[in-house]
Amino acid sequence: MRFGGLTAVSDVSFAARRGEITAVIGPNGAGKTTLFNCITGFYRPSSGSIRLHPASGPAIALHRLPGYRIARAGVARTFQNIRLFPGMTALENLLVAQHNKLMAATGLGIGAVLGLSRYPQAERAAIDLARQWLAATRLLERADDPAGALPYGAQRRLEIARAMCTEPLLLCLDEPAAGLNPRESDELARLLLDIRGQGTSLLLIEHDMGVVMRISDRVVVLDHGKLIAEDAPAVVRADPRVIAAYLGEGEEDEDAPPTEVPA
Ligand SMILES: Nc1ncnc2c1ncn2[C@@H]1O[C@H](COP(=O)(O)OP(=O)(O)OP(=O)(O)O)[C@@H](O)[C@H]1O
Ligand SMILES: [Mg+2]
């Protein structure tokens, strides 16, 4: 991905496997969010390809699709800076996420005019799914509160609930633990393991190494837009190139503990 003269992500090739949590880590400015923006269609990559392999059927070339088609293909995301609809209730935020399904159920309006709409059933199913994810994220009792009035940690959980209401094959999370206290981070880790357990694959950008090391199946490390490591968490955390990337080149301190990526 190039921005004018700046190459933000270059020659990065890896696979996020089905049913796994793949973490994407790296120092600030490494290109992690840019990578997500390419996968989810916010940017169209300058070159290269990104493919989604559904359990059945042919691979889908995401790099050729507009964002709304990528979402429909089964890729959902959350944002580094929370992007909810603050004036809508928590429940309404989760219903908006199911807009595609609901529109299809109206027969794009024609069925409704003819009184043939399946809309009431579809709406009930959408509310049920929303309530299921409100419960899973401990937000059920806040269902009717405006999203913007929720505490920060609750807003982060609501973003995950909203993404899950699209019933994605792949969930992309951009720093979901940012700003959470240790108890909330633990709870988040459990939620992500539950989501994996239900069959959704995850791509996880995260600076909280406690969370990354505990729940990831694989870790991909970016530095200056390049992939510098891809392996199991324990291998990556002991990789000298990864440690150097985090400490900054030429800034290694002899007194610093050499074998751990800083949290
Ligand atoms: N729209 C854009 N136009 C120009 N440059 C951009 C754009 N988006 C990102 N960049 C640049 O691309 C590089 C990678 O940025 P990116 O936001 O992907 O990093 P990151 O790994 O997510 O960092 P952080 O951990 O701070 O979130 C940076 O140099 C950034 O300034
Ligand atoms: Mg980022």
From TrEMBL:
Give the family, as the similarity comment puts it.
Belongs to the ABC transporter superfamily.
Q: Say yes or no: keyword Nucleotide-binding present.
A: yes
Matches recorded under Pfam families: ABC_tran, BCA_ABC_TP_C
Q: What is this protein called in UniProt?
A: ABC transporter ATP-binding protein
Q: Keyword Nucleotide-binding: yes or no? A: yes
Question: Which domain of life does this protein belong to?
Answer: Bacteria
The molecular function terms of the Gene Ontology recorded here are: ATP binding; ATP hydrolysis activity; L-isoleucine transmembrane transporter activity; L-phenylalanine transmembrane transporter activity; L-valine transmembrane transporter activity
Gene Ontology biological process terms from the UniProt entry: D-alanine transmembrane transport; L-alanine transport; L-isoleucine import across plasma membrane; L-valine import across plasma membrane
What are the entry keywords?
Amino-acid transport, ATP-binding, Nucleotide-binding, Transport
The residues covered by the ABC transporter domain are 1-249
> Which GO cellular component terms are attached?
plasma membrane
- Please give the PROSITE patterns that the UniProt record associates with this protein: ABC_TRANSPORTER_2 (PS50893)
